[in-house]
Give the backbone structure.
Amino acid sequence: MNKQNNIKKSLAEKELEDFDLIFKALAHPSRRNILIVLRSRGGTMTAGDIVSRFSFAWPTMTRHLKQLETAKLITVDKKSREQHYSLNSVRMKAVIDNWMKWF
């Protein structure tokens, strides 16, 4: 029985760590704005299109996009020299369904 409790606890801890990544990504207003822009522009944009909508330098935007990607809130598809970023709506729904259901 102890072994089963440890497995459940490990899964719960893993889920909480996952939520921590998500909430860390969502904590910054610029990253939330990036998600809003992606959603309002059809869910997919190139890196250049995203950067053109903000006053960030490339390195700053790259860090924001990387954090959103690490949290799996967006995905990146490299096509030739361009990177296409897409909103991960399945992940966003899972966050809402799985986190908010606790409350």
About this structure: The chain has one domain: 2-100. The longest strand covers residues 74-79.
